[in-house]
Amino acid sequence: MTADEPFAQAMAPGTDVQGYRIRSVLGAGGFGITYLAEHAAIGHQVALKEFLPNGIAARAKTGDTVRPMSPAHQDDFAWGLARFRDEARTLARLKHPAIVAVLNYFEANGTAYCVMEYVAGSTLDARLGPRGTLEADTLAQVVPPLLDGIEAVHAAGFLHRDIKPANILLSDRGAPVLIDFGAARQALGAHSRSLTAILSEGYAPYEQYQRDGDQGPWTDIYALGGTLYRCVTGERPPEATRRIDARIKHKPDPLAPAAQAAAGRYPAPLLAAIDRALAVMESERPQSVAELRALIDRSAPSAASTLIAGAAPARPVSAAATLRPDAPPAAARRRRLWPAMAAVVVVIAGAAAAAYVVVDGRRAEEAEQRRQAADRRKAEEEQRLRREAEQAEERRIAEERKRADEQKKAQEVEARRRREAEEAEERRKAEEKRKAEEDEARRREADEAARKRAEAAREQAEADSRAAFDAYQRGNHDEAIRLSTRAIDSRALAGMALAHAYVSRGHAWFARHKLDSAHADFSAAIGADPASGPAYAMRSVVRRRQGALDLALADADEAVRLLPNFARAYFTRASVYEDMRQYDRAIADYTQAIALDPSHPTAYYFRGRLHETMGNRALAITDYRAVLARKPNDASALGALRRLGAAP
Fold first, then answer.
1. Are residues 219 and 143 part of one domain?
2. Residue 101 placed within a domain
3. I want to staple 124 with a disulfide (CB 3.0 to 4.6 A). Which of 71, 168, 292, 470 is the partner?
């Protein structure tokens, strides 16, 4: 009964739930998980069933809380939990040795728990194995209490709805106990539109596959019949939907009758009762447990034991065959009858002789006349019958001809109707095809027109974006903002093109010292194209100006990663390092920027300034002279050289 395999959703051993400590997992299914637990205070072992419907709820990644999988599942979860609670309350009122006892119910961890009696033993399914059967004497011990338990469930106005070998426990004493009622589970399946997922194939009758199926005691009787069928044949019955399909198509039932599959090994009335219980139509099954018990009890008690043992049953003795104690032997009776019989023969012979003398010739003649008259009447009757038969045959032939003519006319009418219908169908299909082709042509035209409009809008937006960047470079920042805004608002751009438009406008905002607007546009560019290195580089510049050096460094790192050959990215990061007083790193990035773009005078100047700050006069002079070599009249470089006494 204990399951050693792990269940991903199960609570860990040792977890305490409302005073019950989890020991292990007993089983898990689509409706919840059942644990072996013990009362923390008194150590009493119980079976603790947790409401955790698969596909509707799941346990949180941390902790033991159970939550609906999404807001859309909230209603199904709450509805199913209410059914789970109602079922626990109903079962708590059932006191029967063949029904698992419900001891407590509580709600915790966002879900509900049902505390049940723990029955040591194994399931009937485990007892049977893959293809095993139950011995006849074991079956005789299991069936009566099982019938009593199911009858008690029905008497309480309740149905089990999931009787199968896996839901019948055999205690260590061999007594059967019904567990894992499926009423709430099927109700939740019907409510959440996932009915077939919770039915037990082979044991669920056809009405359970229907959302409005007529369910009653006969529903559980079918499942019990399937369970007993498994016990006597070793095979699970075929699915009820297959059987009903075969019946509709007038094909053989795929279920081999138990009366054939297990003949000779179990009482014939028991096998016949199993076959009745497995009738595919509910009206053909026993309608109550009492009716099923009556069918099974035909094999009990003495006849059952005789059939199980393999001996032929004794033939009943009728009342007519019973002997009286004072009846004499047959031979003596025959001896006493002989004298009487002889006397009778003599009397009869004498009477016959007297009659023969009395009869005269007249009476013989009258007898002959009567015989001849009878012969004539017989001949006339035979002739009349022949005539009537011939007339009937003529009428039959005429009727057959009439029916044949009518059938021929009907066939002609039907053929004409079918031909007209086919022609009408062909015309309808041709019309549909024509309309579909016209619709497709219009759709293609509309798609092409939309594509052209989108293409034109995209081309215009891209042109605006390029013109905006040109305007920014010319210093016309208002024009750059206007054009890039028009490109963005057109909604014709995406990806790199949209990112370029945001970057163009961001440059213009930055040039106008609108740092927040520039930051927003560079962030939007990154959202449109996460691989936009220039956007990361410029957002780093903005964040550096805003004093957010850590964020500025992160953006500069990303710009370098995306554009390892882009001198501006290294220059940007060097500026951040310089503000963070990490001068060695700043010099390294300025050096890399110069290596990638030797014509970049600004990188030389800033590196020279850092060398000067760090006391490296010769290196500073070299960098300042490199600036003048590329920009001869650079005032900043000339001033720095004068300051160092190295003016040209």
1. yes
2. yes
3. 168
The residues, any chain, with a CB within 8 Å of residue 186's CB and separated by 6 or more, are 161, 162, 195, 198, 199, 208
- The owner of tokens 């002079």 is 621
Question: Where in the sequence is the domain holding 212, given as residue range(s)?
Answer: 121-309
Which pair of structure tokens corresponds to residue 212? 């409005």
Span 190-231, pLDDT tens digits: 454 443 446 889 999 999 888 788 999 999 999 999 999 999
Residues 6+ positions from 626 with CB-CB distance below 8 Å: 601, 604, 608
User: Of the residues 276, 309, 342, which one is the last residue of a structural domain?
Assistant: 309
For residues 130 and 64, membership in a common domain is answered with no
Q: Are residues 42 and 176 in the same domain?
A: no
Q: Which residue, of 249, 284, 309, is where some domain finishes?
A: 309
Same domain, 32 and 161: no
Tokens of 613: 């700050």
Residue with tokens 């939990």: 81
Q: DSSP H helical segments within 108-216, as ranges? A: 124-128, 136-155, 183-191
Question: For residues 316 and 301, what is the distance between their CA atoms, to the nearest angstrom?
Answer: 16
We report the CATH number of the domain holding residue 73 as 3.30.200.20
Specify whether the CB–CB gap between 213 and 204 falls below 8 A: no
Detail the DSSP E strand segments found in 345-453: none
Q: Where does the pLDDT of residue 301 fall: very low under 50, low under 70, confident under 90, or very high at 90 and above?
A: very low
Q: Measure the CA–CA gap between 120 and 129, rounded to whole angstroms.
A: 18
Between residues 2 and 95, which one has the greater pLDDT?
A: 95
> In this structure, is the dihedral angle defined by the CA atoms of residues 585, 587, 588 and 589, taken in order, positive or negative?
positive
Helices then strands, counting H and E runs in the chain, come out as 22, 11
pTM above 0.85, yes or no: no
What is the number of domains present in the chain?
2
| 519 within a domain of the structure (yes/no) | no
Contact 43, 61 (CB under 8 A): no
Could you read off the pLDDT of 22-37 as tens digits, one per residue?
999 988 877 789 999 9
